[in-house]
Design goal:
Distance between the termini of chain A: 65 Å
Structural class of chain A: alpha+beta
Strand content of chain B: 25-35%
Number of strands of chain B: 12
Number of helices of chain A: 11
Shape of chain A: elongated
Number of helices of chain B: 5
Oligomer: heterodimer
Helix content of chain A: 25-40%
Largest sheet of chain A: 7 strands, mixed
């Protein structure tokens, strides 16, 4: 019987490793748990023990070759009567001194392993890790000098190449920003799966930023220091950019959502049966916003240099919190969708946003954004405009509240489902009157609750 | 951000593992290897995880990928300065250790936290070091694709390396660890090309502007032991 030696699972994010050294050769007898091979991944050397006792029948992967987790790297013939005469490999006994052990066995292992790696190919293709790194950075691997086996391009080579070859890119991108911010500056989410807007440039700003340290920021012992991830940095830069670029004005409307709540309740289970998705309040809000935008094109606009561009398409960005951070997938041509269509599109986009399955295109081209940051404990608040749009609507919590209504000529106090909607708009492009009219129109539409379900 | 806050090394087990931190003072490199070997066997046999903190007298270590051409000083020069050269059974290229550099050997059983995850371990070590140096007003960062703690280079300048990381795993127990430059004379690194990378500039807490007062290295040691204990387990009494 033969035993297959496979690359063990080394961790969630570890997909592959590189064979650093074989400690055994074909024909060697090994005992169970004896270290037979070392793999390297990201500055970690992992010694792989033999899964069983027997004779190494075949070594399938040579030194410096990259192997995926789960891949078969050697075959062991289980110890039969014939293997009994040869003692387990001597190196397994020299556990006392690691230095001697390694220097002693290294040349032997290397010599024995070399035949398997001599696949006759003059210039081997880059390692998978290197290829991925090169793809991410947009580097052509043929322009990289390989230092691996037989000139194979390794991940480090790509990193070195990137460090030398693209050092001027960040500076350029940074310089370009103030001049053409509307085109260069992607909304934060756009950059997440889309490598085109100069990820290297975004990741490390070339211009020195004023540091909080000059205002006496300090870290005490026991504090946690968390470097920003790439997405966090993009979001941060975008927020600062937006605040600096657009004079934000906020206005809040109090909406009576009772009619919508009733409509939703009456149709909830039928809707779920029919469409297979839950019916939340969000599609109602989106539908009302879309209709109001159709009537108020000034809010469905972008500021590009010294012009205001009123967009023909209505593409609604929906801000979604994921474990990696904030992303804003876009419902395209939202005005062409029914309420059920909106509900399905929102459900699909937010699910895939959380599963990191969004395509780059699905994060682009928004003309207005709606933020629904979890309504509990959130009366209302003003969101920051998603550039280059001119408006963003933020949903507050929905609570039952006593309000005054007129009934048969008398004022009465009744209990209604109330929600605040807060609009932030760019005062460069929009004045107070149209902005308020827009928000009031949303309120009218929601309170009338005239939606086709 | 849950991504950074979550994978805090191997501390996420139900019963908090203990991490025994020991300050060993100055230990020659080869003796350090022996100590690690013994600690590794003890941890493998079920003892608590260890963090061995120490300093090495000047030594150049060559990993398996280590190229002699990355040794810049001549044999005579090395001898005159009392620098030892040791070949070690680890991946990677060439490193330099010396006085003023805090070396930490982390001997931890990766299986304690369920499925072993070597990348999470490296991220955890980086996070612990970032916490520790943050306490001295030094805001480090990670560089994608390079293990270690760096200071982001300003205005297109290269990043500076504050701490190096290299880990070995045997029977799911880790050894080796990190080397944090505290107040080491950075000119000493001129005897090598660090990690075989020509574009790396080394830095230290001192170079990053930390005010070196009395008992400085002891304070750094305490901060490091504390941050590792928080991320990898509590300190055993």
């Amino acid at each position: 019987m033969s035993i297959s030696v496979q690359v063990p699972n080394l961790g969630e994010s570890v997909v592959e490793g590189t064979v650093a050294r074989w400690l055994v050769a074909e024909g060697d007898t090994v005992s169970i748990d004896q270290i037979i091979v070392e793999l390297t991944t990201d500055k970690v050397d992992v010694e792989i023990p033999s899964p069983g006792a027997g004779v190494i029948a075949k070594i399938l992967v040579g030194v410096d070759e990259t192997v995926e987790v789960g891949a078969e790297i050697a075959i062991i013939e289980e110890a039969g009567a014939s293997a009994g005469d040869s003692k387990p490999a001597a190196r397994s006994e020299t556990t006392g001194s690691p230095t001697e052990e390694s220097t002693g066995s290294q040349p032997e292992g290397a010599r024995e392993a070399s035949p398997t790696e001599s696949t006759p190919s003059s210039t081997p293709s880059p390692t998978p890790l290197a290829q991925r790194a090169a793809d991410e950075k947009g580097i052509d691997t043929s322009s990289v000098t390989g230092t691996g086996a037989r000139g194979r391009v390794t991940q480090q080579d790509v990193a070195d190449h990137g460090a030398n070859g693209t050092s001027s890119a960040p500076a350029q991108a940074e310089r370009a920003q103030p001049e053409k911010p509307q085109r260069e500056q992607a909304p934060p989410a756009t950059a997440l799966p889309d490598p085109t807007p100069a990820p290297a440039a975004q990741a490390r700003p070339a211009a020195p930023r004023p540091s909080a340290k000059q205002y006496g920021a300090s870290v005490e012992e026991g504090d946690r220091v968390i470097p920003m991830t790439r997405l966090r940095k993009l979001v941060a830069d975008h927020m600062v950019y937006s605040k600096r670029t657009s004079p934000h004005v906020g206005t809040v409307a109090e909406i009576d959502m009772t009619a919508v709540a009733k409509l939703r309740k009456a149709n909830k289970s039928r809707f779920e049966d029919q469409h297979g998705i839950g019916l939340t309040f969000l599609p109602f809000i989106v539908a009302a916003v879309v209709r109001a935008l159709r009537e108020t094109p000034a809010l469905n606009a972008q500021v590009i240099d010294d012009t205001i561009v009123e967009k023909r398409s209505i593409n609604i960005g929906i801000a979604v919190e994921t474990e990696k951070g904030l992303v804003v997938p876009v419902v395209r041509d939202a005005d062409r969708l029914s309420l059920a269509g909106l509900a399905a599109a929102i459900d699909d986009l937010s699910t895939r946003a959380r599963n990191k399955k969004l395509g780059a295109d699905e994060l682009k081209g928004g003309t207005f954004t709606i933020s629904n940051p979890g309504r509990k404990g959130n009366l209302y608040g003003f969101a920051i405009i998603n550039q280059p749009q001119v408006g963003i609507l933020r949903m507050g919590e929905m609570v039952k509240r006593p309000v005054v209504r007129e009934l048969g000529g008398d004022d009465v106090i009744v209990v209604r489902q109330m929600m605040h909607l807060a609009l932030s708009y760019d005062h460069r492009a929009v004045d107070g009157q149209p902005a308020n009219a827009f928000l009031f129109r949303i309120r009218e539409l929601l309170e009338a609750a005239d939606f086709d379900l | 951000m849950s991504e950074s806050a979550g994978p805090a090394g191997v501390s996420s087990t139900a019963k908090a593992p203990t991490l025994r931190c020991e300050w060993l003072g100055e230990v020659p490199y080869r003796a350090g290897l022996e100590l690690q070997e013994r600690a590794l066997e003890a941890v493998r046999a079920g003892e608590e995880d260890r963090l061995l903190l120490l300093e090495h007298p000047p030594v150049i270590t060559l990993g398996r990928a280590g190229k002699r051409e990355n040794l810049l000083a001549s044999e005579e020069e090395r001898q005159a300065r009392g620098i030892e050269v040791v070949d070690v059974a680890r991946g990677g290229d060439v490193t330099y250790h010396g006085r003023g550099q805090l070396v930490g050997y982390l001997i931890a059983n990766l299986r304690r936290a369920g499925e072993p995850d070597v990348h999470r371990l490296v991220r955890g070590i980086e996070a612990a070091l970032l916490d520790a140096v943050g306490a001295f007003g030094v805001f480090g960062t990670r560089v994608e694709g390079r293990a270690g703690v760096f200071i982001a280079g300003e205005a297109g300048r290269p990043d500076r390396k504050l701490a190096s990381i290299g880990i070995g795993v045997r029977h799911w127990v880790t050894h080796h660890g990190f080397a944090l430059n505290v107040d080491i004379d950075l000119r000493e690194f001129e005897v090598i090309v660090p990690c075989g990378l020509h574009d790396i500039e080394m830095t230290s807490l001192e170079r990053e502007g930390v005010n070196i007062g009395p008992e400085f290295s002891a304070r750094v040691r305490r901060a490091v032991a504390g941050s590792f204990a928080r991320r990898f387990g509590s300190i055993a009494p």
